[in-house]
Design brief:
Structural class: alpha/beta
Shape: globular
Number of strands: 10
CATH class: Alpha Beta
Low-confidence stretches: none
CATH architecture: 3-Layer(aba) Sandwich
CATH topology: Rossmann fold
Length: 186
């Protein structure tokens, strides 16, 4: 995708979550996470690159001691459909006996997040919790459920606030959806 095509895509997209809605969701999540983890000395692990924006906005709202590391695992890369989970970077902090909170940008089918949780549990974490900023409302059921959810959004191709389209538009302060009549092209 060229920058010009990315601009054109944004012009035809529909905003599904504005900055006020996003900020309210972040504050609500921070309160719920704080209530659950403030006494547990957790390790917070954003899943890169998608959770970068989400983590950058959420972490300053958590006002208790915690350690931060990150990991990189994905099924999509620059593609629109997922394949097998690829591990690029694993956490360097010892997780044995620790509460771990995985931050991810979106819960779609849950395959990547489920694989991440299993791997962190295999490192000896005492508990593995998940926080996703966007939970897609899917028609099909999925086994994976997040412990903390920012926004429930429709099953459309979404981008902005960490979510990308062909690597572009993670930097947008709002979340957009591809128009339904163009969705078939993606």
């Amino acid at each position: 995708m060229t920058p010009e095509a990315a601009e054109s895509l944004l012009e035809s997209a529909v905003c599904v979550a504005g900055t006020e809605k996003i900020e309210r969701a972040l504050s609500d999540m921070a309160m719920a996470i704080s209530n659950r983890l403030e006494k547990s000395n957790p390790v917070i692990l954003p899943v890169m690159t998608g959770a970068l924006i989400f983590a950058g906005h959420l972490l300053p709202k958590l006002t208790f001691p915690l350690e931060i590391d990150y990991l990189q695992a994905n099924r999509y890369g620059q593609n629109m459909t997922g394949g097998r989970v690829h591990w690029r970077i694993e956490p360097r902090i010892d997780l044995h006996g620790r509460s771990v909170l995985i931050l991810d940008d979106i819960l779609d089918k849950g395959i990547t997040l489920e694989a991440v949780c299993k791997k962190m549990a295999s490192y000896g974490a005492s508990e593995v919790l998940t926080a996703v900023f966007v939970n897609k409302r899917l028609a099909a059921s999925r086994n994976m459920k997040a412990d903390f959810i920012g926004l429930e959004l429709p099953d459309r191709f979404l981008f902005g606030f960490g979510l990308d389209i062909y690597g572009y538009w993670r930097n947008l302060p709002r979340i957009y959806a591809i128009p339904e009549n163009k969705y078939k092209d993606f």
